[in-house]
Specification:
Elements lengths: L18 E6 L2 E6 H7 L6 H4 L18
Antiparallel strand pairs: 1-2
Length: 67
């Protein structure tokens, strides 16, 4: 099964099985979207939860990774 296109308007439930690559003070980590979906309302979109992500050590937002 192909992953849906990565867009901010996509509901978390539609991104089940995908991972976010996040970088912060401790380096790079990978977060399964299903964990975000489990803690968010069923209608939550990626754009709704990304601003709330914070590093547990430095409390900053993860830095974007551009390829």
């Amino acid at each position: 099964m192909d992953a849906p296109p990565f867009v901010l308007n996509t509901r978390l439930a539609e991104l089940h099985g995908t991972w976010l690559q996040l970088s912060c003070c401790k380096g790079t980590t990978y977060l399964p979207v299903r964990l975000l979906a489990g803690a968010a309302p069923p209608h939550a979109r990626l754009r709704d939860v990304l601003p709330r992500l914070r590093c547990k050590d430095c409390h900053d937002r993860p830095r974007p990774r551009w390829h």
